[in-house]
């Protein structure tokens, strides 16, 4: 069984930085994509950034130039470096893993940005 555990969320002032981590365990196909999503209360969960096992990364426009997604395949950990945070970045951030027809989610970590 695959498990994803996020950490690194917290309270930060606007303009500050946070680094989220997602530790993966279990039987994971090396050909996979790992994603960060976020969800604001009352809104749908939205994709933030993706990291493909072949090395490619993609970002949504609202985080381009501010967030960086990366992974350590040996440690089986996904990261999201978030810089220049804005109040609108406040949300619960979720780690997501997909391979073949499987999809797994972490429990989420809260990020709160105050002005």
Structural features, described:
The protein is mainly β and 115 residues long. Helices cover 0% and strands 57% of the residues. It is built from no helices and eleven strands. Strands 2, 4, 5, 6, 9, 10 and 11 form a seven-stranded mixed sheet that branches. A four-stranded antiparallel sheet has the order 1-3-8-7, with no helix packed on it. β7 and β8 form a beta hairpin. The model has no long low-confidence stretch (mean pLDDT 96).
The number of helical segments is 0
Q: Given the C-alpha coordinates, what overall shape results?
A: globular
Question: What's the Cα radius of gyration?
Answer: 13 Å
* Structural class by SSE content: mainly beta
Uncertain spans, ≥5 residues at pLDDT below 50?
none
Q: Span between N and C termini?
A: 41 Å
């Amino acid at each position: 069984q695959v498990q994803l555990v996020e950490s690194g969320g917290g309270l930060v002032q606007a303009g500050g930085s946070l680094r989220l981590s997602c530790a993966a365990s279990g039987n994971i196909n090396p050909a996979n994509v790992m994603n960060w999503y976020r969800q604001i209360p009352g809104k749908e969960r939205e994709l933030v950034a993706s990291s493909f096992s072949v090395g490619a990364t993609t970002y949504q426009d609202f985080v381009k130039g501010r967030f960086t997604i990366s992974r350590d395949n040996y440690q089986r950990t996904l990261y999201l470096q978030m810089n220049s945070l804005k109040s609108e970045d406040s949300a619960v951030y979720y780690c997501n893993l997909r391979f073949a027809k499987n999809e797994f989610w972490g429990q989420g970590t809260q990020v709160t940005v105050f002005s």
